[in-house]
Amino acid sequence: MRFSPVPRGAHFFELFTESAAHLLTGAGLLARILGADRTERAELASQLGDAEHAADEVAHQVFTALAQTFVTPFDREDMYHLTTSLDDCMDAMDEAGELIVLYKLGGLPAGVGDLVALLQRCAELTHEAMPRLRSFDGLPEYWIEINRLENQADRVYRRVLAGLFEDGADPLTVIKVKGVVDALEAAADSFEKLANGVQTIVLKES
Amino acid sequence: MRFSPVPRGAHFFELFTESAAHLLTGAGLLARILGADRTERAELASQLGDAEHAADEVAHQVFTALAQTFVTPFDREDMYHLTTSLDDCMDAMDEAGELIVLYKLGGLPAGVGDLVALLQRCAELTHEAMPRLRSFDGLPEYWIEINRLENQADRVYRRVLAGLFEDGADPLTVIKVKGVVDALEAAADSFEKLANGVQTIVLKES
Amino acid sequence: MRFSPVPRGAHFFELFTESAAHLLTGAGLLARILGADRTERAELASQLGDAEHAADEVAHQVFTALAQTFVTPFDREDMYHLTTSLDDCMDAMDEAGELIVLYKLGGLPAGVGDLVALLQRCAELTHEAMPRLRSFDGLPEYWIEINRLENQADRVYRRVLAGLFEDGADPLTVIKVKGVVDALEAAADSFEKLANGVQTIVLKES
Question: Which residue windows are coiled coil (chains A, B, C) (predicted)?
């Protein structure tokens, strides 16, 4: 099913790695947004938006290359899946950052910082894994760890959600903060889907 | 990768155009719902539901034809993608109309009318673009304009959302109106995904 | 397009049936959660979580088998679609159960019980249909009935939603119960997508 390595493949791996670099930038900006005051937050969210646009550009380059390349390094639908998953990670992080600014939120529950720290770790691992699609070295460690981090994010998410509704909670604040943590949880899910996509590729080739 | 044009292709283009005609009807009904009183709204939402059912029927015909046709005019997965995107546009607009009636909403923020006007424009452009899948004439203009409209819808959506939570907002009204504008924003997203699908087809063939 | 039946196919049908058995267990647990008190609910939701994990394991086995099998009984993407739809049904039901416990909800509107009863019926029909992918016997009856049940679930969902917002509703309770019924409605949608996937397979083969 797999053709022998083609030089053209190199181009795709570089694009995936570039896309993951934007995720790393994005997750870092999200962490800084949490600690910043309102003026800084707007500026940081605008930088996060720039990272999102840059990632969009890369996704567009991959789609164009996929449409115009006859022999792709892996099955076309798996390449497509990786690209949209990378995009989904970025979109969800960008949405979280935007909502924090849009809703003029003040301090956020501690669990929100924990979720963002988990996303930063996911972004690091993903950024390290993408160039290894060339050799397949160390990829199982990557997807096992992402799955572990996503489970952890899920537990933190539920803890934050339960805490949100505690006695005396203001309904409008609940809606706003829930919007932010839902977006963070969606980002963790997308990192997991991306890792599952990498696993599918490795399974097919082995 | 592409087979020479087959007469059978004509059938698919007609179905896509028919589906887009239902979108145009749906977006028009949505605009009328905004300006109507409660009794009229229920009647218009029911007509919107009929348009949704009719579009569903067309999607079903496409899926049946795809399953039974050996040579499709474009890659099978791209045809499938177009069909589900057309369906998603309709579902989201129908949901918005239903929620307005179900929640017995009165006047809606001005931005809601702006969003619906943008969707009407998207539906017009989509309806004009579908028959041009035959010749590929003017398709880049179509997808560039849809992307521009979606960006505009995104800005309007965020403005409406920020406005919703302003001083003295009633939480239940916020939940209801947010449900409606979330559905409108999802419709704009689906129009963009549809346009991206058309772009993929053109890229593959050129 | 179809290769002659291969013994390997049997393995896939057994996995789909096993996955559907977990759906049946899950829907039953969900029904018991509604009638239970808080202590029992936590225990039942934990069993529901176990069923979800078990279903996840099965999905993983299908993906591994798909990646490693050269000739699959049906088109690869249709097998993939069935597997993710089965998974989506389970995830949505598990989410509903978890939220009931997490939000410490007391009694739920009557319509919630109706929705769960509809999901139980969907799970039964799905469990009966999966082994019949071997012979195709009685599959149209299955997907027609699922479509009917999904339409019914949609009407119940809207009735519950409208009722939720009635005079004197507490916004936090609205957010919580809406989270639960949104998850139940998503489960019904996923059962319908699964049935549509089965229909696609049958259309392709006939």
Answer: none
